[in-house]
Amino acid sequence: MPKKTFFNLPDEKRRNIIDIALDEFAAHGFAKTSINSIVARADISKGSIYQYFDDKKDFYLYLVRFVKELYVEHRSRVVGDIRGQSLRVSLKKTIMFFHTFIEEHPNELRFYCAMLGDTSIAFADEIAEIMTDPSIRYVRELIFSAKERGELADGIDENILTFELVALITSFQQVSVNPSLCEVYGMDSESISSLAESADRLIDLVMDGISSR
Fold it and tell me: Structural domain tally of the chain?
């Protein structure tokens, strides 16, 4: 985690360091990214970075958390109060919100995509925990809220349903990141409406299998 000195920086300077680091790691991967390149572009001394972070790994993990927190904040803003809407509505919003996240945070998206394909990272388990745990908690909250409203049939295995919904959401996000996957299936990669229609059909299938009515 960053040291207190990092958070004492002016917001603009701190964000500049973050943006440059995201860009460098996205372009070169973890192993080949040089702290020297980051500090040169940020116009700070190399020693300063080690006043903010323990090492390059600590810096990288902070960026992973930073991107995930942006993702969670954006999702919360777009999806809204999951307790006040049906599971069907929350699922549709959750599946589709990633399009606007991509548009608003392209630098973070490049970092995320590079991270997924970076075989030089020896601490992938730590990254997986940061990226996966909040998503699992969120889906469990969706299920809990739906159960409280009486939307779910009796006997539904909530652990299996959590896995299924995470897989559903993740698959649509992968298509959003990699439009060529749409083309494989003959879908319009430029049209949000085609994805929205596909999402509706899959949500219908899910709800038919778990709904109490």
Answer: 1
